Amino acid sequence: MATVPYSLTLVAALGSAVLLSACGDPPSGAPPQAGTPQVTVMTLQPQRLALSSELPGRVAAVVSAEVRPQVGGLIKQRAFTEGSVVRAGQLLYQIDPATYEAAVASAEATLARAEATRTSARLRAQRQRELVQVQAVSRQDAEDAEASLEQAEADVASARASLQTQRINLQYTRLTAPVTGRIGRSSVTPGALVTANQASALATIQQLDPIYLDVTQSSSAMLALKRSLAQGKMKNGAARVTIKLEDGSAYAEPGTLEFAETSVDATTGTVTMRVRVPNPRGELLPGMYARAVIEEGVLEQALLVPQQAVSRDASGKAQVSRVGADGRISLQPVTAARAIGDQWLLSSGVAAGDRIALTGQQKAQPGAAVQAVPASAAAR
């Protein structure tokens, strides 16, 4: 049997010692220090920003007139086509005029009788005035003749007013369009009985070109807008309005902001604003839902950050991670005024030139030193 050399035995013993030390407790000493966290940052640069608000609303007709009868009777004729455009003064319905024509004839006869009586009273009063001068009749008879003449004059005036009333009622048997516009469906047909000033309308006429879009905005948003304009942070916009239909498509014609309501709705805390929109093709109909994108104004020094850079604390307040000139990261409370696409508009808490962390800020505690990498370099 061959003997093992001494050198090989020594090497085997040393290897066993190394293996035993590796399987046992590690040697004492401090762990190696971790590397500096790398944070992607962006430098805030002010930019010119046109602000707009997208507000919900309902379409309303510029003019809406309900057709109701002012006299009662049977409908003899309907003289329009439902859904067509009618002109002001155009005949819509004809009520049977027979009884009203008879009333006019009776009033004319009453007027003629009153005028004849007045003529007789005038001649009698004239003769009495001549006779009383020669003392052929008493003064009492002359005064009675003058009173009879005045009464005859009043009877003529009353008969003339009655005739005028009957003629007006006869005219009311012709129901004409009060305005020019598109007329809807008719609630009655020929042969139906209608009454004066009834509750239900016979038809409705609406002017659809142009048309109104009534939208609502919160009173707090309106106050913030007025405050920004007063402080000079924002310049007035042109009040140009873009319309979005209920299916999300854009309406071809731009609108114009007409006015804002002078009071706030106490139940909703909103203010109603009216937008005037051209409607040449009749696409917008009263009652339709639409959204108005209103240009409010222009911010000359707007500060925008991606939404991923803004976080919330336990109380829900917005904050960003800012990297200072000393390379240390800190949490900075900010005011996120509104969302602009995928960015937040910051109105306070930061200034132009500040470096804001976009990614990697979760790896560093506030006050820790970080390695700031510009976003453009990180993208490359």
Structural account:
Belongs to the membrane fusion protein (MFP) (TC 8.A.1) family. It is found in: Cell envelope. InterPro entries: MdtA-like_b-barrel (IPR058626), MdtA-like_BSH (IPR058625), MdtA-like_C (IPR058627), MdtA-like_HH (IPR058624), RND_pump_MFP (IPR006143). With 380 residues, the chain is α+β, with helices and mostly antiparallel strands. The chain folds into 4 domains: 38-48 and 302-379, Beta Barrel (conserved putative lor/sdh protein from methanococcus maripaludis s2 fold); 51-62 and 209-300, Efflux pump adaptor protein, beta barrel domain (Elongation Factor Tu (Ef-tu), domain 3, Beta Barrel); 72-95 and 173-200, RNA polymerase II/Efflux pump adaptor protein, barrel-sandwich hybrid domain (OB fold (Dihydrolipoamide Acetyltransferase, E2P), Beta Barrel), CATH 2.40.50; 97-172, Helix Hairpins, CATH 1.10.287. Helices cover 28% and strands 37% of the residues. It is built from 5 helices and 21 strands. Strands 1, 15, 16, 17, 20 and 21 form a 6-stranded mixed β-sheet that branches. A 6-stranded antiparallel β-barrel has the order 2-9-13-12-11-14. A hairpin with a 2-residue loop joins strand 18 and strand 19 (343-348). The chain is elongated. Mean pLDDT is 82; it is low at 1-33.
